[in-house]
Give the backbone structure.
Amino acid sequence: MSTSESPTRDRVIAMVAKILKLDASKINTSDRLREDLGMDSLASLELLSCISDELDVDIELDEAMELVTIDDACAFVDRVTAEQRGAGAAS
Amino acid sequence: MAQALPPEPIAVGLENQEALGAGLSVAHATPAEAEALPLVRAESTRLVASLADAAAIDRDGAIPLALRQAVADAGLFGLTVPEEHGGAGFSLKAACAVVADLAAIERSTAIMIGLHSGLGVRPLVELGSAELQARMFPEIVSGARIASFAATEAEAGSDLTGIRTTGTVVGDQLRVDGEKVYVTNGGFAGCYTVLARTPGLGGQRAHSLVFVPRETPGVTIGPEEDKLGIRGSSTVTVTFEGAMVPQGMILGQAGRGIDQAHAALSWGRTLMAAGCVGTARAALHLALSHVTSRQQFGKPIGDFTASRAHVARMAARLYASETLVRWVGHALASGQPIDELSLGAKVLCSEASFEICDRALQLHGALGFIEPTGVARLTRDCRITRIFEGANDVLLVRGGAAVLGRKPAPAPARLSLPGPLEREAKAWDALRSRFTDATASVRAEHGVGVVRHQLVLQAVARANLALLAALGCLFRAQARPDELTLARHATEDLLFEAEQHLNDLARAVRDEARVHAVSDQLYAPLSRITKEDPS
Ligand SMILES: Cc1cc2nc3c(=O)[nH]c(=O)nc-3n(C[C@H](O)[C@H](O)[C@H](O)COP(=O)(O)OP(=O)(O)OC[C@H]3O[C@@H](n4cnc5c(N)ncnc54)[C@H](O)[C@@H]3O)c2cc1C
């Protein structure tokens, strides 16, 4: 699934650019954290931990391990945010 | 989706205890190896024992050419090269048995063979094109082209994602530029497997493994490093300036270099752990002959209970080390992933061998501190193993994240070992339950943010490792009743440690706050360290 329209996208890309010291315009949402962006498992977990803090979403470690691309991370954040909002509205 | 997660390591083997027990009690993986291995071990031991003067190698800082040639003539550079390419085609497990034997005699020689057989050769075996393999293996097997692995750079050690060496596509060639440091075997190697950034082949930060023959114009070899230990092992800087190689020298899929390097490191770490087993055996042997002959207060010092405690602890650590190394070999031969097991073996064996050497040194008194006894050299030789192929501090952080990142498994089967080790098995099972509960609450409390809690991750990794090693010792002894006494002692020690690590885990977040407070004060006048929030 592509999240190129997602409001999350720009913030996630900005974080990736900052962490990897890369030009944001050169990052594609289809980039894979490992193969394309050269992150190892620790670096990608650190990124997802920043995303979790900055966007205020809870990310479980086993879910984090399954995110391969920036698109995956954006879609995941959008889904969890929607769920958290839904849960908030219901309570 | 993401890389497949390995199975819960603590549950590994519970389904087939007999096969695992048998696998942990032998040094070979197949019946064919069972025949060949004793011959190779006997011959290589005889050869190296007769030619290697460990004290001279240490003093001169080099392995003599005649020794290198002799091990080449004996076929030791073909240990892990497939038989169809002229090698012995040994499994990881069998290669470990040989490397352990060599390390017990002379560690630099063992490292030369071990590094060549694992990190040096395996990427070519697993990822090289048929053409490259056919061209290179005859020279590699004969020892005319010794292999090395060049990942580390001055600014990229533990964090390999920071490497700057590049492989740039120029027509159908790849141009390699950069500088690699601490390349083992580098001084006399005939080929370098180089981890390089290859932008354009994969994403903009993609890395690939590139096979660079030594004779490639633009390759320069620096002088040998002067080291604390393994002084005969070659350690040099290798510079690549416009070194052009055909694109066919990229090993495997371009852009997958970091993962490929980690896969090769699984072999490398296991062979290094096997070397630690060898060093530990040598240290225990020296200690035993010393404590039974040296007399004080009218009796052999080995009679004192305190000395017996040293000796028993050394034997227990060695037993656990051997068990884990065999377990990695057994797992690989059974088609299981070995990344976490090999990481665990590397950490446990490197720490155990240093502890064993240190205890041997203590038991020798002044004789341990002076060089001629050889204990000092063993201690110096094994110190590096806690640093290279991944500093243990970092590996434990990675290991903890990997354990916590696994989907929580459904309640595992109870460990059932009727017989003489039933009590230990019950104790293991109780601790495993405690571990499962503790990791579940860490997951719930921290989520992905646990990556910032290094003491939590390390405690999880250490508890996991101690439980894993204890389980291995229990299974191994099931198949070897003659090892019961030692296995029981090793298991008791490991379970005690697992409990301590679980206690560490319970207070890790508080400990983090405390160490941050102290180190902040110490760093304040000096540095520009960014503050991590341990809360
Ligand atoms: C004799 C020798 C042979 C070697 N052979 C090879 C070889 O053949 N090929 C090769 O590529 N490399 C080789 N190396 C390099 C070796 O693998 C590296 O030294 C090792 O990976 C550690 O990197 P570093 O030395 O840059 O330490 P650094 O990365 O600077 O780390 C220093 C210390 O900082 C701490 N630390 C760093 N990062 C973290 C973190 N994230 N979390 C917690 N603590 C951390 C740890 O305590 C660590 O020990 C060799 C080194 C030596 C000394």
